[in-house]
Amino acid sequence: MASRSSILTFLVCTALLAVLFGAADAQGLRVGFYKKTCPKAETIVRETVAGFVAKDATVAAPLLRLHFHDCFVRGCDGSVLLNSTKGRLAEKDAMPNLSLDGFYVIDAAKAAVEVACPGVVSCADIVALAARDGVELINGPSWRVKTGRRDGRVSSASEAVANLPSSFGEIAELKAIFARKGLSAEDLAVLSGSHTIGNAHCNAFSKRLYNFTGKGDRDPSLAPAYARKLRSQCPRGDETSIVEMDPGRAVSFDTSYYARVVNGKGLFHSDAALLRDKVTRDLVYQYTGSASKFFRDFGVAMGKMGSIGVLTGARGEIRRHCALVNA
């Protein structure tokens, strides 16, 4: 039987190899990857997203969320887009992902790109570009998106459950999940700012209103007046109604989310958890008073997140249809 030290050495080496392979793949990304093979790719994606945002600005938030949920499960490989198949439940059908939206925008952008450049641009890259474009089109920050990702062929609902952070998460748990993806506490604080746009279903936070510790109580970190308002919007047992995460500003990408967190009005328990760690708490207060810092840091963090576990080179494939692996 192998000794404990041998087993430990094997595990450490395995983990190190995973990190090294991930870093090597990330180095395969670059700004303007399609400059020669599909020069209009990014313009086509942006124009497609702009068309949908012009009709309904709320679509920007689902596009951003798609990118986040894609990258945190198997890396940024477009696996969140795949349909379930016989015998395998895909990520999009996992409980945390049942409220995902915006797939139709990605499909439309992919179809338009395929007309211009068949079999060249990955769905994973389209998700990354659409997230950036959606945010910028509602007056949020912009950032340079490195491209060159390839699409994965596997999508697992159980992996989504295991890897996505919970809206009820405590700060230590949230930091650990981000650390496993190579992201810092600072990244956690700034990426949480994406909650300044979009909506949420009542079941993502109702425990805070009615049964926080299992004794029919309210989450004490939630401002009482805000809790009363949420109860009026989400009666006990209501799991389908939706509310704005940043009331009155759900299509305005700004720093108001952080002001709400400071005042006990963050919608999720994970929002309130940011105040329980010095690093994240300090950034919450800094972002409250500096939109320029928030925008700058958000773009940097999105770039880091967009490099998680990417497939490049000969790994993966370029899907013809984003919901289906190639035959």
TrEMBL record:
**Per the database record, which ranges form the Plant heme peroxidase family profile domain?**
28-326
User: What's in the keyword line of the UniProt record?
Assistant: Calcium, Disulfide bond, Glycoprotein, Heme, Hydrogen peroxide, Iron, Metal-binding, Oxidoreductase, Peroxidase, Secreted, Signal
Sites binding substrate sit at 165
- UniProt: heme b binding residues: 195
Q: What is this protein called?
A: Peroxidase
Q: Which Pfam families match?
A: peroxidase
High-level lineage: Eukaryota, Viridiplantae, Streptophyta, Embryophyta, Tracheophyta
Tell me which GO cellular component terms the UniProt record holds: extracellular region
Residues annotated as binding Ca(2+) 1 are 70, 73, 75, 77, 79, 91
EC main group = oxidoreductase
Source species of the chain: Spirodela intermedia (Intermediate duckweed)
The organism's place on the tree of life at top rank: Eukaryota
So what does this one do? Removal of H(2)O(2), oxidation of toxic reductants, biosynthesis and degradation of lignin, suberization, auxin catabolism, response to environmental stresses such as wounding, pathogen attack and oxidative stress. These functions might be dependent on each isozyme/isoform in each plant tissue.
Cofactor requirements of the protein: Ca(2+); heme b
Catalytic residues, chain numbering: 69
Q: Which Gene3D superfamilies match?
A: 1.10.520.10, Peroxidase, domain 2
